[in-house]
Amino acid sequence: MSLEVLGLPPVAAAPPQLSAQQRLEIYRYLKLTRLLEERLVNLYRQTKVVGGLYRSLGQEATAVGSAYALDKSKNDMIAPLIRDLGAMLVMGATPRELLLQYMAKRDSPTRGRDLQIHYADLQRGFIGPISHLGDMLPVMCGVALASRLRREPRVCIVYMGDGASSTGAFAEGMNFAAVQRLPVVVIVENNGYAYSTPTSRQMAVERIVDKAVGFGVRGERVDGNDVLAVYEATLRAVEQARAGGGPTLIEAVTFRMKGHAEHDDQKYVPKALLEAWAAKDPLARYERALLDEGIAAQEDLDAIARRIVEQLNEDVAFAEANPMPEPSSALLDVYASDAAERG
Ligand SMILES: Cc1ncc(C[n+]2csc(CCOP(=O)(O)OP(=O)(O)O)c2C)c(N)n1
Ligand SMILES: [Mg+2]
């Protein structure tokens, strides 16, 4: 679909394999991502979130649509980055544990040792991001190679930003994935900026997808604000990877509607750009599609939102009431044997 459409562009026609129930589930994940982040902003402003808060506003469709194309029964796995909260939710991370984690509370997944989405659960198929940009690609190559040696059908998605796609780790990882024909899908979220640097100031190619040619892998450029288009492109890449056809580089063209993090007022981003992209908001577009196609009535969408808000109210209250970790707990789980003793 054209990436140049202004106004509220339509989303791609629904792929036939998605049922109405699945399409509403996708809606729930998009809405949950947005509402959970809004709650996190409130908590951040009350200084209850520890560390930075990195929003995915405007990019939710890229994270949700891609992770939705994975197959949990085959133990598929993702390596998310800071703007992939939606992908974490699709993989089964709960808002409650995410709130605890952002607030560094006692019962958070890392018991206050790390923040944001920096935690892993191999059962549910996500591994914690290394902050060094690009490095999750070589790591995921290792996961994919190990899976293949064990004859497991796992496919891995690695997410990274436009900035990360300019690193050495990206180049090494892409090359290794390509030459080994690993079952890896690389999703480059081209959101226009890396911190305050516009994409045009940190790479000479106009289309990130063109980098795929240099590595000898298939590339696809997709409207990252169209959740069904992202889902379809990822599904094609996942099917190819599972069939032994090797990696795909997907460039999801989207926009970072907030600063790098909540502390950044993004005054370096031209207003006109923000306005143009606001008109392509992925959630509004998908809502429109569901209504136009008769998949849901406005009351149905409102009911989904209401249930999310009710659950979030409970989760936020739980996370706020949870104590900070005991300082002495920092001594636990340092060695694998501690974890074994704790069961
Ligand atoms: C190797 C490396 N260099 C610099 C940084 C500091 N840093 C963290 S996020 C960021 C910008 C990332 O931009 P991009 O990859 O486009 O992702 P986005 O934040 O736009 O989603 C930078 C420079 C880092 N974490 N790792
Ligand atoms: Mg970026």
Rg: 20 Å
Percent helix, as a range, is 40-55%
Heteromolecules bound? thiamine diphosphate, magnesium ion
Strand order in the largest sheet: 1-2-3-7-6
List low-confidence stretches.
1-7
Q: Alpha-carbon distance between the termini?
A: 51 Å
- What series of H and E elements makes up the topology? HHEHHHEHEEEHEHEHHHH
Word description of this protein:
This protein has 343 residues and is an alpha/beta fold. It has helices at residues 20-45, 60-67, 85-91, 95-102, 136-149, 168-179, 211-215, 227-242, 271-278, 282-292, 298-321, 336-342, and strands at 77-79, 156-161, 184-190, 193-194, 197-198, 218-223, 248-253. It has a single domain, classed as Thiamin diphosphate (ThDP)-binding fold, Pyr/PP domains (Rossmann fold), CATH 3.40.50.970. It has 12 helices and 7 strands. The chain has a 5-stranded parallel β-sheet, sandwiched between helices. Strands 4-5 form a two-stranded antiparallel sheet. Strand 6, helix 8 (227-242) and strand 7 (248-253) form a beta-alpha-beta unit. The protein is globular, with a radius of gyration of 20 Å. Thiamine diphosphate (TPP) binds at residues 83, 131-133, 160-164, 167, 189, 191, 193-195, 256, 260.
Descriptive keywords:
343 residues; binds magnesium ion; five-stranded parallel beta sheet; 43% helix; Rossmann fold; disordered N terminus; binds thiamine diphosphate
Précis, in short:
The protein has 12 helices and 7 strands. The protein is an alpha/beta fold and 343 residues long.
